[in-house]
Amino acid sequence: KLVGEGADDAGGVFDDTITEMCQELETGIVDLLIPSPNATAEVGYNRDRLLLNPSACLDEHLVQFKFLGILMGVAIRTKKPLDLHVAPLVWKQLCCIPLSLEDLEEVDLLYVQTLNSILHIEDSGITEENFHEMIPLDSFIGQSADGKMVPIIPGGNSIPLTFSNRK
Fold this sequence. Notes:
Blueprint: H1 12-27, E1 33-35, H2 37-41, E2 50-52, H3 59-78, H4 88-94, H5 101-105, H6 109-119, H7 131-134, E3 141-143, E4 149-151
Antiparallel strand pairs: 1-2, 3-4
Protein backbone atom coordinates (compact mmCIF):
# COMPACT_ATOMS: atom_id res chain seq x y z
CA LYS A 1 0.00 0.00 0.00
CA LEU A 2 1.28 3.46 -0.88
CA VAL A 3 0.74 5.52 2.26
CA GLY A 4 -0.01 9.21 1.71
CA GLU A 5 0.21 8.90 -2.07
CA GLY A 6 -2.61 9.02 -4.54
CA ALA A 7 -2.53 6.29 -7.12
CA ASP A 8 -4.81 5.28 -9.93
CA ASP A 9 -3.88 1.76 -10.88
CA ALA A 10 -4.01 1.39 -14.61
CA GLY A 11 -0.88 -0.73 -14.49
CA GLY A 12 1.19 2.33 -13.71
CA VAL A 13 1.49 2.32 -9.91
CA PHE A 14 3.99 -0.53 -9.94
CA ASP A 15 5.96 1.07 -12.76
CA ASP A 16 5.94 4.46 -11.01
CA THR A 17 7.19 2.91 -7.78
CA ILE A 18 10.03 1.11 -9.56
CA THR A 19 10.94 4.29 -11.45
CA GLU A 20 11.11 6.24 -8.17
CA MET A 21 13.34 3.56 -6.64
CA CYS A 22 15.71 3.77 -9.61
CA GLN A 23 15.78 7.57 -9.38
CA GLU A 24 16.66 7.37 -5.68
CA LEU A 25 19.48 4.98 -6.50
CA GLU A 26 20.83 7.28 -9.21
CA THR A 27 20.57 10.56 -7.32
CA GLY A 28 22.63 9.41 -4.36
CA ILE A 29 19.79 9.33 -1.82
CA VAL A 30 20.90 5.74 -1.36
CA ASP A 31 24.69 5.55 -1.69
CA LEU A 32 24.95 2.22 -3.50
CA LEU A 33 25.87 3.75 -6.86
CA ILE A 34 28.46 6.40 -7.69
CA PRO A 35 29.43 8.22 -10.90
CA SER A 36 32.17 6.60 -12.97
CA PRO A 37 35.64 8.17 -12.75
CA ASN A 38 35.15 9.21 -16.39
CA ALA A 39 32.10 11.22 -15.27
CA THR A 40 34.06 12.85 -12.46
CA ALA A 41 36.99 13.72 -14.76
CA GLU A 42 34.71 14.51 -17.72
CA VAL A 43 36.68 12.30 -20.12
CA GLY A 44 36.10 9.14 -22.13
CA TYR A 45 32.98 7.04 -22.47
CA ASN A 46 30.18 6.21 -20.05
CA ARG A 47 30.21 9.56 -18.30
CA ASP A 48 26.49 9.12 -17.74
CA ARG A 49 26.92 5.68 -16.18
CA LEU A 50 27.18 4.58 -12.57
CA LEU A 51 29.29 2.03 -10.74
CA LEU A 52 28.70 0.07 -7.57
CA ASN A 53 30.09 2.05 -4.64
CA PRO A 54 33.08 0.12 -3.25
CA SER A 55 32.67 1.96 0.08
CA ALA A 56 29.11 0.67 0.52
CA CYS A 57 30.07 -2.27 2.71
CA LEU A 58 28.21 -1.73 5.97
CA ASP A 59 25.51 -4.20 6.98
CA GLU A 60 22.82 -1.70 5.95
CA HIS A 61 24.43 -1.42 2.51
CA LEU A 62 24.47 -5.19 2.12
CA VAL A 63 20.75 -5.29 2.92
CA GLN A 64 20.19 -2.57 0.32
CA PHE A 65 22.28 -4.45 -2.26
CA LYS A 66 20.20 -7.56 -1.57
CA PHE A 67 17.05 -5.53 -2.18
CA LEU A 68 18.57 -4.17 -5.41
CA GLY A 69 19.21 -7.76 -6.49
CA ILE A 70 15.60 -8.66 -5.73
CA LEU A 71 14.49 -5.60 -7.71
CA MET A 72 16.60 -6.79 -10.65
CA GLY A 73 15.09 -10.26 -10.36
CA VAL A 74 11.57 -8.80 -10.39
CA ALA A 75 12.48 -6.75 -13.48
CA ILE A 76 13.68 -9.88 -15.25
CA ARG A 77 10.60 -11.91 -14.26
CA THR A 78 8.15 -9.17 -15.26
CA LYS A 79 10.13 -8.23 -18.39
CA LYS A 80 10.12 -4.60 -17.27
CA PRO A 81 13.67 -3.25 -17.51
CA LEU A 82 14.97 -1.04 -14.74
CA ASP A 83 15.85 2.51 -15.68
CA LEU A 84 19.28 2.24 -14.04
CA HIS A 85 22.20 3.75 -15.88
CA VAL A 86 24.95 1.45 -14.67
CA ALA A 87 28.08 0.91 -16.74
CA PRO A 88 28.36 -2.21 -18.92
CA LEU A 89 31.25 -3.30 -16.68
CA VAL A 90 28.78 -3.72 -13.78
CA TRP A 91 26.48 -5.95 -15.82
CA LYS A 92 29.47 -8.05 -16.91
CA GLN A 93 30.52 -8.48 -13.28
CA LEU A 94 26.99 -9.49 -12.28
CA CYS A 95 27.02 -12.12 -15.04
CA CYS A 96 30.52 -13.36 -14.06
CA ILE A 97 31.92 -12.35 -17.45
CA PRO A 98 35.67 -11.69 -17.25
CA LEU A 99 36.59 -8.03 -17.57
CA SER A 100 39.09 -6.65 -20.04
CA LEU A 101 41.28 -3.57 -19.97
CA GLU A 102 38.84 -2.04 -22.46
CA ASP A 103 36.00 -2.52 -19.95
CA LEU A 104 38.00 -0.62 -17.35
CA GLU A 105 38.90 2.08 -19.86
CA GLU A 106 35.19 2.65 -20.56
CA VAL A 107 34.71 3.82 -16.97
CA ASP A 108 38.19 5.12 -16.03
CA LEU A 109 40.18 6.27 -19.04
CA LEU A 110 42.79 8.21 -17.04
CA TYR A 111 43.61 5.23 -14.80
CA VAL A 112 44.11 2.93 -17.79
CA GLN A 113 46.32 5.55 -19.43
CA THR A 114 48.39 5.74 -16.23
CA LEU A 115 48.72 1.94 -16.09
CA ASN A 116 49.78 1.83 -19.74
CA SER A 117 52.31 4.61 -19.13
CA ILE A 118 53.88 2.64 -16.28
CA LEU A 119 53.83 -0.57 -18.32
CA HIS A 120 55.64 1.04 -21.27
CA ILE A 121 57.67 3.56 -19.29
CA GLU A 122 60.94 2.60 -20.96
CA ASP A 123 59.57 4.28 -24.12
CA SER A 124 59.86 7.57 -22.22
CA GLY A 125 63.52 7.02 -21.36
CA ILE A 126 62.81 5.88 -17.80
CA THR A 127 65.24 3.28 -16.49
CA GLU A 128 65.55 1.24 -13.33
CA GLU A 129 67.86 3.90 -11.92
CA ASN A 130 65.45 6.84 -12.27
CA PHE A 131 62.16 4.91 -11.98
CA HIS A 132 61.29 6.11 -8.46
CA GLU A 133 62.12 9.70 -9.30
CA MET A 134 59.47 9.65 -12.02
CA ILE A 135 56.89 7.29 -10.48
CA PRO A 136 55.73 8.38 -7.02
CA LEU A 137 54.10 5.03 -6.19
CA ASP A 138 55.86 2.88 -3.61
CA SER A 139 53.65 -0.19 -3.90
CA PHE A 140 50.93 -1.83 -5.98
CA ILE A 141 48.11 0.48 -4.94
CA GLY A 142 45.67 2.50 -6.97
CA GLN A 143 42.68 4.73 -6.59
CA SER A 144 39.29 3.03 -6.54
CA ALA A 145 36.17 4.55 -8.06
CA ASP A 146 35.33 6.23 -4.74
CA GLY A 147 38.76 7.86 -4.51
CA LYS A 148 40.26 5.63 -1.82
CA MET A 149 43.70 4.09 -2.25
CA VAL A 150 43.46 0.28 -2.41
CA PRO A 151 45.76 -2.62 -3.38
CA ILE A 152 45.43 -3.49 -7.08
CA ILE A 153 46.72 -7.03 -6.47
CA PRO A 154 46.39 -9.19 -3.36
CA GLY A 155 48.83 -7.84 -0.76
CA GLY A 156 49.73 -5.00 -3.12
CA ASN A 157 50.15 -2.43 -0.39
CA SER A 158 53.14 -4.36 0.97
CA ILE A 159 54.79 -5.24 -2.38
CA PRO A 160 57.28 -2.60 -3.53
CA LEU A 161 56.68 -1.29 -7.06
CA THR A 162 59.90 -1.39 -9.05
CA PHE A 163 60.95 -0.99 -12.66
CA SER A 164 61.45 -4.75 -12.98
CA ASN A 165 58.18 -5.93 -11.39
CA ARG A 166 55.84 -3.26 -12.83
CA LYS A 167 54.56 -5.70 -15.48
